[in-house]
Design a protein that fits this description.
By secondary structure, the protein is an alpha/beta fold. Helices cover about 40% and strands about 15% of the residues. The longest helix has 19 residues.
């Protein structure tokens, strides 16, 4: 199963800046790298331009969020139908910024997951604990609750999703989980997925996010149950993002 290395640009880069980035990145990423799948998730306003620029490459296009309805009176939202028309393949769902800034609950994340699968999109479901929850020893219970809620109704089809473990205290802070901390949670997630899916989790990748950069990626990817990365800040720089990808080749 190929590693997944995904760029989440968040609310950064205009259309022009996005195209400049893609042109630089394509020069770096000239050849397909074996056993690695690369995805870039720009802002909604740059999706079409980036998607066209990625034509005839192996780089996948992703979206940072999605509403679960196909259309309707949902001001400011974007539907799965709209994303499919732009050749989006991945959708990041349940990111901690969506949960904690915009108040998304587990039930909403689940509706979005079900909708992505219904429309032939692949969700990357983000889970993770806050610093307070970690200090209280609640990391595994929080992650389990979020995962069980997110995949409710598709337990036997978890091979259709990927999971991103992103400890909230490590996102954008420059403080990443140690390889041992990340591996502990990833191992727990793998065992949970295997149990609830009755062994149908072999194509579900568990990737790590939270201040991943070109300096710590190699040590993290060495861990048995870390199967790629969801990269935030470092992915805004094509050279850094490419370096993170190549670190996965050293395993």
């Amino acid at each position: 199963m190929a590693y997944l290395v995904a760029a989440n640009w968040k609310m950064n880069k205009t259309n022009a800046e996005s195209l400049e980035y893609v042109n630089i990145f394509k020069e770096l990423y000239k050849e397909y790298l074996p056993n690695i799948e690369v995805m870039i998730a720009p802002s909604f306003t740059a999706l079409e331009a980036v998607g066209l620029a990625l034509n005839n490459t192996t780089i996948k296009l992703g979206a940072q969020n999605m509403y679960f309805e196909e259309k309707g009176a949902f001001t400011g939202e974007v539907s799965p139908v709209m994303l499919k028309e732009l050749n989006v393949e991945y959708v990041i769902l349940g990111h901690s910024e969506r949960r904690h800034i915009f108040g998304e609950k587990d039930e909403i994340v689940n509706k979005k997951v079900l909708s992505t699968i219904k429309h032939g999109l692949r969700p990357i479901i983000c889970v993770g604990e806050t610093l307070e929850e970690r200090e209280l020893g609640k990391t595994l219970s929080v992650v389990e609750r979020q995962i069980r809620a997110a995949i409710s109704g598709i337990e036997r089809e978890v091979y259709l999703v990927d999971i991103a473990y992103e400890p909230v205290w490590a996102i954008g802070t420059g403080v990443n989980a140690t390889p041992e901390q990340a591996q502990e949670v990833h191992k727990f997630i793998r065992e949970l997925l295997n149990s609830v899916s009755r062994g149908n989790d072999k194509n579900t990748r568990i990737i790590y996010g939270g201040s991943v950069n070109e300096k710590n990626a190699r040590e993290l990817i060495k861990e048995k149950d870390i199967e790629g990365f969801l990269v935030g800040t470092a992915s805004l720089y094509p050279e850094k993002f490419y370096k993170i990808i190549t670190e996965c080749l050293e395993v």
